Amino acid sequence: MQIFPRELNYLPLALAVVAGGLGAGVFILFWVYFTPPNLQVGYTPKQPVDYSHRLHAGELGLDCRYCHSQVERSYEAMVPPTQTCMGCHAIVRTESQ
Ligand code: HEC
Ligand code: HEC
Q1: pLDDT of the residue at 35
Q2: Cα 28–Cα 32–Cα 38 angle in degrees, nearest 5
Q3: Is the minimum distance from the CB of 57 to ligand 1 under 6 angstroms?
Q4: Mutational test site, ligand 2, from 93, 95, 96, 97, max ligand atoms within 8 Å of CB
Q5: What is the pTM of this model?
């Protein structure tokens, strides 16, 4: 007596096709949607101090290492403490908020 019908031989193949399709679907989902144009939606929160790299490192030409003093020694570049800023800002732009 035959318990399973003969067509069941194709089941592994059918499952493989479905799994492959799902895999490709997930891959395309990540490929298309998890890209910078979709993730970086202009998130620029207002900071308490309106610090600008363009001004300090760009126009004024400050060395990065003046503020990020650990960058060549540690895996953390370090964000400068307020004292680093006040070295200049105790005399520069003292009227500014
Ligand atoms: C006057 C001090 C100063 C100088 C000079 C400076 N930075 Fe910064 N940097 C900061 C501060 C303060 C922050 C944190 C606030 C911010 O992100 O704007 C920061 C943040 C950064 C970040 C983001 C770090 C993070 O974890 O998101 C990068 C990258 C960076 N700086 C690169 C540079 C490079 C490259 C240079 C040199 C061309 C430079 N910085 C020069 C003060 C400075
Ligand atoms: C080497 C000196 C120096 C250091 C260090 C420095 N600044 Fe400045 N900063 C300046 C100069 C010069 C200006 C421009 C002043 C002007 O335009 O009259 C300025 C301008 C600014 C302004 C704009 C002020 C305004 O009212 O428009 C901000 C905000 C500022 N700095 C924040 C910071 C912060 C935060 C740090 C530390 C991470 C820092 N600065 C470190 C020299 C410095």
Answers
A1: 80
A2: 150
A3: yes
A4: 93
A5: 0.74
